[in-house]
Specification:
342 residues, eight-stranded parallel beta barrel, 13 strands, TIM Barrel, alpha/beta, globular
Amino acid sequence: MLFDLARPALFALDPERAHRLTVAALKAAPMGQPCESSVLATEIAGIEFPNPLGMAAGFDKDGEVPDKLLALGFGFAEVGSITPRPQAGNPRPRLFRLVEDRAVINRMGFNNGGAEAARERLAARKGRPGVLGINIGANKDSEDRIADYAEMTRIMAPLATYLAVNISSPNTPGLRALQDESALTGLLDAVFEARGELGPPVFLKVAPDLEPADIEAIARIAADKKLGALIVSNTTISRPPLRSHHKDEAGGLSGAPLKDLALQRIRDFSKATGGTIPLVGVGGIASAEDAWARIRAGASLVQLYSAMVYEGPGLPKRITRGLERLMKRDGFSSIAEAVGSE
């Protein structure tokens, strides 16, 4: 109700300013408790998730409000992407609401305050309950991006429940080339060496804009390196039919128009991995039905971000309540039992 009243004022603002105000409001909100485990609890990569719904990376770029996000009803929160050195990102404007399409286009470019500021902030919350993913990236002007990922792993591994290696943003030139088979093998070798034997699980975030051969190669590498999970997927550079006057803006598209493509990629990766690597479904999830379809297609966890722009902070609890209803309706006793059952 409050969000419905506030939405016209927020939508009258530049999207990036509205986002900063939203983060500031969360920072000022009283500290709540993370959601407790329920019938939706599930275990992935040795981590117990109280429910399978997470906040995707991109909302809390600097790790300012992970505990406030958990208190909204998310089963986990992923902060970042964080890079070794602070960077301003791409020139503004770089964030666009496509209201008619319930979508967002962004070309932010890993804008963040850098690893040291985030490390101090996240170290201060260490020991609090809740599953925290830290999404790591490379600086745009880095001469050795693999070294950047290794450095970020060393810094963030002690603070993370899991690390998410983001090589799929379309807004850092050349970054997606790290999804190529030889480059990806070298990258993950460096990450695992930097993490050490006792570090947190490593998740890999991939793009939806992949050819079948790419999917097969990534699936093989994920199995070989024993990744904790694949996050499928990031924003898309493709453009399905759109109505908004912002439809031709450069950048990654997220929100409702990405739903069908992201769902298909979950099916593709589920088939390619034979169900041996947990999948995190992202892209176009805005309801319990969307989340349930992704789980039935093979995702063990799901994430959202763009839908919060249009649905507000009550969305996580609406989705988890809906998932409980859908799980009961379809005769499943756990999320794990429903994964890949379509």
